[in-house]
């Protein structure tokens, strides 16, 4: 193939005072911000839903189960388009959303979409973590006079979260990978910057290689952080703990 | 407030278009499931073999594909595959190779995920089974084909099918190449008629019915068949 490699392309001027490298960096930062915010939503919402799926209350369990089925059986892309195109039309304060600047609209839709989508998956992990605890833990908590709420807060959830760190790691990685879907609504995150670079520089291979490497770097960073957390929070006496 | 719904875009003519799109989605899904499972099985066997270079290759392959977003994988393949095919088959650059690119991309991408499921499945077969097969005088190929893989697959079927449902949802992402599968058609119709709201809700409902129905079937199968 007669492809003309040109790695200097990243240092060429893209716009006033900006090189293409600056575009890539801003894309990576957007991806990071998007992923971290969505992950925060997913952890909180997922924990609440996971608890709801295990409490002795039929109604709450049904709500949790419905949420999971709904968010797991509709493609992420469709959910994103519903957040971005459909909800502003239907919500009473939709007009206010439509007046925000385009980047804020895209970012808000992407964060909420990724957060609620991932929450369904976190919920299932939290639920399986709680279920995997010996029944004696809950009974012991209640026998000590803790209320159900206290038992969850002080006994069940702290244990469950320590057990499910490994599967949460892969969900955390998924958040960043899934964030690339936000490029479809025009949010200039990493993948979108990569496509823009292809259009502007006509150097597709350099652009895609750079973007791919940046995703790999984000992946490795997340894995390193999670491995550190995993080592710190291992439950003594469980398989995998030293 | 006060959005007035108008579902007139969902008429027979458009449903025909949407149906064709759905056929393409299903074609991509079916191809990727079949090729992905075959190639994934080979990768899993390489990963578990005693030959180091094969292990490294399989591990590298799986880790690379699993650390890159599917959107990026698709963009890569829409860039590379047409050039390769044009070189090999002497096609003109005008030929539309996006379907071929999508098929290759999903097959190779899903193989990485399938291989991890299959590897876990093979490892879940008790060691004694291999020893017993070898004691009966079976070769490596025979013991894999006749003893290990049948048992592994029987346990893995629900996971493989669930991965197929995920894959079906992921086919919507070929939208990045403007290829007209179900989602692309639905969005296109919505944009043309100014009815994106209705078409997106409709697309979501269709995906939900298909995927939820399929996952109920998987659960039923899991209860009946798995050892």
Please outline the helices and strands.
The complex is a heterodimer of chains A (242) and B (227).
Chain A lengths: L12 E3 L2 E2 H33 L5 H15 L3 H15 L3 H6 L2 H31 L2 H9 L4 H16 L1 H14 L11 H12 L2 H30 L9
Helix pairs in contact in A: 1-5, 1-9, 2-5, 3-5, 5-7, 5-8, 6-7, 8-10, 9-10
Chain B lengths: L11 H37 L3 H16 L2 H20 L8 H26 L3 H9 L4 H31 L11 H12 L2 H30 L2
Helix pairs in contact in B: 1-2, 1-4, 1-6, 1-7, 2-4, 3-4, 4-6, 5-6, 6-8, 7-8
Alpha-beta content class of chain B: mainly alpha
Oligomer kind: heterodimer
Return the CATH topology of chain A. Answer: MetI-like fold
Number of beta-strand segments of chain A: 2
How far apart, in Å, are the first and last alpha carbons of chain B? 54 Å
Tell me how many strands of chain B there are.
Answer: 0
Classified in CATH, the superfamily of chain B is MetI-like
Q: What series of H and E elements makes up the topology of chain A? A: EEHHHHHHHHHH
Average the pLDDT over all residues of chain B and give the rounded result.
91
Q: Can you identify the CATH class of chain B?
A: Mainly Alpha
The low-confidence runs of chain A, each spanning 5 or more residues with pLDDT under 50, are: none
Instruction: Determine the number of helices of chain B (DSSP H or I, runs of at least 4 residues).
Output: 8
Domain count of chain B: the total is: 1
CATH topology of chain B: MetI-like fold
CATH class of chain A: Mainly Alpha
Q: Could you give the order of the helices and strands of chain B?
A: HHHHHHHH
Can you name the CATH architecture of chain B? Answer: Orthogonal Bundle
Estimate the strand proportion of chain B: under 5%
Write down the overall mean pLDDT of chain A.
92
Largest sheet of chain B: none
């Amino acid at each position: 193939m007669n492809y003309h490699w040109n790695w200097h392309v990243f240092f060429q001027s893209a716009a006033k005072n900006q090189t293409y490298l600056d575009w890539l960096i801003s894309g990576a930062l957007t991806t990071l911000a998007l992923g971290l915010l969505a992950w925060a939503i997913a952890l909180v919402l997922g924990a609440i839903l996971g608890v709801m799926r295990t409490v002795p209350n039929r109604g709450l369990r049904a709500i949790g189960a419905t949420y999971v089925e709904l968010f797991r059986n509709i493609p992420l892309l469709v959910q994103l388009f519903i957040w971005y195109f459909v909800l502003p039309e239907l919500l009473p304060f939709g007009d206010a959303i439509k007046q925000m600047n385009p980047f804020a609209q895209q970012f808000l839709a992407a964060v909420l979409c990724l957060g609620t989508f991932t929450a369904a998956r976190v919920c299932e992990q939290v639920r399986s973590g709680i279920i995997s605890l010996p029944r004696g833990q809950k009974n012991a908590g209640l026998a000590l006079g803790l209320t159900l709420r206290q038992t969850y807060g002080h006994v069940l959830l702290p244990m469950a979260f320590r057990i499910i760190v490994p599967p949460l790691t892969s969900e955390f990685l998924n958040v960043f990978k899934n964030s690339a879907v936000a490029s479809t609504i025009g949010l200039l995150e990493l993948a979108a910057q990569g496509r823009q670079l292809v259009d502007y520089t006509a150097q597709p291979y350099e652009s895609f290689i750079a973007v791919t490497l940046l995703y790999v770097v984000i992946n490795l960073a997340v894995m390193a952080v999670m491995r550190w957390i995993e080592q710190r929070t291992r439950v003594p006496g469980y398989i995998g703990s030293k | 407030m006060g959005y007035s719904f108008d579902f007139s875009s969902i008429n027979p003519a458009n449903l025909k278009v949407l149906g064709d799109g759905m056929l393409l989605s299903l074609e991509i899904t079916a191809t990727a499931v079949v090729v992905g499972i075959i190639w994934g099985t080979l990768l899993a066997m390489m990963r578990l073999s005693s030959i180091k270079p094969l292990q490294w290759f399989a591990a590298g392959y799986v880790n690379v594909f699993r650390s890159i977003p599917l959107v990026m994988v698709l963009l890569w393949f829409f860039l590379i595959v047409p050039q390769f095919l044009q070189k090999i088959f002497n096609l003109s650059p005008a030929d539309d190779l996006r379907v071929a690119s999508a098929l290759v991309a999903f097959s190779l991408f899903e193989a990485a995920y399938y291989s991890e499921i299959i590897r876990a499945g093979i490892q879940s077969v008790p060691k004694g089974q291999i020893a017993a097969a070898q004691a009966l005088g079976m070769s490596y190929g025979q013991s894999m084909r006749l003893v290990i893989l049948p048992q592994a697959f029987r346990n893995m079927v629900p996971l493989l099918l669930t991965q197929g449902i995920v894959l079906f949802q992921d086919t919507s992402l070929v939208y990045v190449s403007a290829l007209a599968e179900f989602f692309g058609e639905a969005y296109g119709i919505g944009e043309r008629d100014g009815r994106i709201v209705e078409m997106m809700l409709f697309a979501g409902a269709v995906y939900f019915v298909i995927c939820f129905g399929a996952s109920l079937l998987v659960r039923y199968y899991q209860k009946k068949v798995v050892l």
